[in-house]
Amino acid sequence: MKRSIAAAACVLAAFTAVSANAEVISLNFAGLDGDAQELVLDYYNGGTGSLGSGPGTNYGISFSDNAIACSVQPGGSCNSGGLPTGGNLLFFLTGDASTMNVAGGFDTGFSFYYSAINNPAFVSVWSGLDGTGDLLATINLATTPSDPGSAACAGGGFCPFVPIGVAFEGIAMSVDFGGSANQVAFAAITLNSDVPGPAPAVPEPATWAMMIGGMGLVGASMRRRRVKVAFAA
Description:
Layout: E1 25-27, E2 61-63, E3 68-70, E4 89-91, E5 97-106, E6 109-115, E7 121-126, E8 135-141, E9 162-167, E10 172-178, E11 185-191, H1 205-213, E12 222-223, E13 226-227
């Protein structure tokens, strides 16, 4: 039987209509209730998640109603661990994809970390909202290793996470995160860069001077709104 991610049943232009925000934005879903597997919804659109967490930073980014934030091991509600930038992972339990909409658009590149230990998956970058318009890029995601016994993974099967990204031309307004439900996890979703993670800090002038001078489905029990992970053989 396949192991699954979840342990329970249970993304207006800033300048003009043809100009995207060039700021590197990395989402780690840390402000959402990952223990209770909260839907992301409008958390990054100046609103809240499904359980009222937020508001998050208003990036003009929203997610479809099957995109879930989930906490990892040790003690988290998903069968995963070792998130490279901390926070919560993103996954979905229904449908064949979850969708991120970016009303102001983004360009240059798109990147993230992922784990898919049983089934391959995919990510598609579109010029229109809700997976419409021109297909600007597709990333085919191969299956990844599983190392729950490592210290970093702390018992989580969907671990380690693998970095991947793509450069593209044009302005994108949505992304589909696709594959088999409950079988692929995403982390550090990054816009305007083909390398995942937060944008590197720019040293202050004084710092430069110093540098010149001298890195399956689930079975579980609910308890205090926490859903405990269950490993399947």
